[in-house]
Amino acid sequence: MNAQEAIDRLALTDLVMRYCRGIDRRDFDLVRSLYWDDAVDDHGEMFCGSPDEYVAWLPTVLEPLDCTVHAISNSFFVIDGDIAEGEHYSVNFHRTRAEPRQEIIIHGRYLDRYERRDGVWKFARRKIVFDHGYVHPVKEEGLAQAGADAPHGSDDRNDPSWSFPLLAGAAK
């Protein structure tokens, strides 16, 4: 691997990680900034469209959830000049707000196409793939015990990460 390929892989990894932060912290400006204007986000039958349509759709689909965690592993990139593709295994955790509260865990993959324009990598196409998943009730007592001694995260600007100015300005 040459130095430019290592730099490109780091930039692409950062792009994928910024997406996870944007979704989990409901930072839709950040999410939008990661896509080229002519990109397509394909979430199957749930949604397929432009970045602007995707960002407009996100609040609707995320509103019933009080917590999401998108965790990426096994990232694989193939880079060819200013075009790259990536496959990322993900475990996506979702907890519903309404009673009876449920946890929805999805094991899947993101299949991405990236383009570098004017030296910047962004998504040109993003497609989700479902591999496995399950739903079970929230165990409220266990949740309360596990989180008793730490600050709690939230899906809005009350999350502790927003008090870190560099993280809060990630979309800039």
Describe the structure.
This protein has 172 residues and is α+β, with helices and mostly antiparallel strands. 30% of the residues lie in helices and 43% in strands. The chain has helices spanning 3-24, 28-33, 51-62, 140-146, 165-168; strands at residues 35-42, 48-49, 65-80, 83-96, 102-117, 120-137. Strands 2-1-6-5-4-3 form a six-stranded mixed beta sheet. β3 (65-80) and β4 form a beta hairpin. The model has no long low-confidence stretch (mean pLDDT 95). Residues 145-172 are annotated as: Disordered. This is Nuclear transport factor 2 family protein. It holds the Pfam family SnoaL_4. Residues 5-127 form the SnoaL-like domain.
Descriptive key words:
alpha+beta, Nuclear transport factor 2 family protein, 172 residues, SnoaL-like, six-stranded mixed beta sheet, 5 helices, single chain, 6 strands, NTF2-like_dom_sf, Nuclear Transport Factor 2, Chain: A
